[in-house]
Amino acid sequence: MNTADEQKRASARKALEYVEDGMVVGVGTGSTVKHFIDGLAAMRDRIEGAVSSSEQSTTLLKAHGIRVFDLNAVGPLPLYVDGADECDPHQRLIKGGGGALTREKIIAEASERFVCIIDRAKEVELLGRFPLPVEVIPMARSLVGRKIVALGGQPVWREGVTTDNGNWILDVHNLRIVDPLGLERELNQIPGVVANGLFARRAADVVISAGEVRKQR
Length: 217
Ligand code: 5RP
Known about the structure:
This protein has helices spanning about 5-15, 30-40, 55-65, 70-75, 100-110, 140-150, 180-190, and strands spanning about 25, 50, 70, 75-80, 85, 95, 110-120, 130-135, 155, 170-175, 195, 200, 205-210, 210-215. It is an alpha/beta fold. The protein folds into 2 domains: about 5-120 and about 200-210, Rossmann fold, CATH 3.40.50; about 130-195, Alpha-Beta Plaits (2-Layer Sandwich), CATH 3.30.70. The strands form 3 sheets. It has a 7-stranded mixed sheet with strand order 3-2-1-4-7-13-14, with helices on both faces. The longest helix has 12 residues, at about 5-15. It starts with a helix and ends with a strand. Ribulose-5-phosphate (5RP) binds near residues 28, 82, 97 and 100. Ribulose-5-phosphate binds near residues 83, 84 and 99.
């Protein structure tokens, strides 16, 4: 298999096998998920609808005639399908390259099974080469930045980007994340942090890389 995009498409196609009739499907954000949404469109009459993690995905879903529900209206979900920026051998992830990390984390938490779809370049031994996105309340940007520097990271403001929740993103460089769970917790404790892109506490249940099911738990 050749390009990253072909690998993403193959993973998205494989993830469709986890979709069952009558489901409300949790849908992530990004270019891999776009392939998944395209595939979901072909089976839209078999599913109840979707819960979306971003305005971007909502627009795509609606354009395909897929009903989009508010998470509060449907409760726990059987399935969440989303991409990632990095995935380690324990299925822990860095997410948020597309800026949708907070809603993605909420839907992942609300879902029974999280199927993560990636291309091979996303597989890493140690998380942290990809800058870790942290969503912050705007007034806390520099406070959170200073706290992150004290933790050894180098925060860079994703200037000009406002999240769907009206917040800002810091991309944290130079982190060697040996304890993803500990760092996820520590970052969450900084006042002004809304969410961070480490998915360690709620890791993926299934990882599909380049169309192959890599891990299953
Ligand atoms: C968006 C995300 C995406 O899943 C992540 O950035 C991967 O994107 P892509 O599928 O375009 O490579 O976390 O917030």
